[in-house]
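Changelog excerpt

This revision adds worked examples to the README so contributors can see how folded entries look when concatenated. The first example is reproduced verbatim below.
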Amino acid sequence: MLFAEYFPMWNKLTPAQQDKITGSLISRKAEKGAIIHNGSSDCTGLFFIKSGQLRAYILSDEGREITIYRLFDRDICLLSASCIIRSIQFEITVESEKDTELWIIPAEIYKQIMAESAALANFTSEIMATRFSEVMWLIEQILWKSLDKRVASFLLEESVIQNSPKLKITHEAIANHLGTHREVITRMLHYFQNEKMVILTRGTVEIIDKRKISDLS
């Protein structure tokens, strides 16, 4: 698959701009668990996910994680190159949740072309607005939604991602996604199990009553 097929704005760039991107494009493979971007000082560039799955998260001062969004095939990660947007410094970490193949446009190259192309500048603003909308949605969930509802919603979402009611995920991983402690998630999942909504085994959470989980979420 050619990069041009992944980049929606490709045909709106001039041949010279296309050549500049092609000449600087980095192809990378990341193994599951690899950190591929770490903080605002690491202005890596734009990620274009060819295949795989990435997770973008932020860290509290105490070292607690919370997922702000996830990326799948054909998604674009702009906050890994937040330095191209003046006055934005976003401390995110991006890790590979699965073995992932991606392309990277170096931040400086993208910034140069964005300065020349109004269409690309508008496209970039739209992506940034989408990501910040996701962050605002997350804040609303944390502020106004109880943890049991958030856990239920997460399990349903994860079931769609894994395409199975039997989720291969640890309590610690769920806690990291939701920004809480593993012990809290363990207590919540045991409550779900007592209510016959899930079955817990080592490293897995199996949804056995999707209706109850959906009603709770």
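The second example, added in the same revision:
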Amino acid sequence: MRKPLSYIFILAVLSCSLFSFSSCSFVESEYRDGSNEQCFEALWRLMDEHYCFFDYKKQELGVDWDEVHARYSRQVNEDMNNAQLFEVLCNMIGELKDGHVNISSSFDYGRNWSFYEDYPLNYNDSIVNLYLGNDYQMASSLKYNILDDNIGYVRCESFADGIGSGNVNAMLYKLTICRGVIIDVRGNGGGMLSQAEMLASHFTDHRILIGYISHKTGKGRNQFSSPKAQYLEPTDGILWQKPVVVLTNRGCYSATNDFVKCMKLCPQVKVIGDKTGGGSGMPFNSELPNGWAVRYSAVVFYDADMRQTEFGIEPHFYVSMSGADTSRQKDTLIESAREYINSQYK
């Protein structure tokens, strides 16, 4: 599992009492001594009974969870120290390539963030700051300003910072003079689904089917509830009906993936940039016998056509940062968004 320090994903985690999960702890009687082999077996079994993407990961990645057990169990013995055991466990769950699957110890945080590490960043913070300027306004964590062609630019770095509908109303009121608005969520690793969908609710004037949710109902790998429809309801506040462009890169994950899914269904919205990083499984927390914390995807979200979005959402228009633009201190994605919005008035 890769272990970089960038991008902190703060996720909304449901109570473990929901969806037939009776406890957040997996320290059952047969695993209480906390030996290396029992920690391994506890982790493998926890994932086997509660992880929600085995069929999809086998289809897309060829991951056979039984074969994974056979391969990694041979690497575990009681002579290993904590660091060695941690590495083996992290490598095992890293086979799933799921940014929501993590192990936390006092000395490290194991994760697989290849969904953005293996791709161009398509974002330059210094250049973005030139567009925001020094006089930008803030509505909670939303930073915004009006560009010189009368287009609003909004930088949304996280959905974990307490953004409320009142903040969005105040911001959109200030931007009503604009021809359109750019919402830049590049590098936004997620946060609260409720905040992401609340922001999206300001950009539709009608109810939209945005997808379906299904959760585990038993310990079998294919035991799920029937998919339940989810809808985006228009806000009671300000409804924005002018052109909108959402800027994305591979760092758009989890709740931000959901935000892009919702926004892409709004008729006046275009998504420009790269495919999002994905992360469509709701994470749950548990604990191994030795006290290490485990997080894993346990609830599946689909799009409106019942397709998986675990590995990301395609933009309407693929645009990458240009070296020539970067040398001129220009952001290719922002400039493409401005060109698109202005073209709607020709």
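Reviewer comment on example two: The chain has eleven helices and 13 strands. The mean pLDDT is 91.
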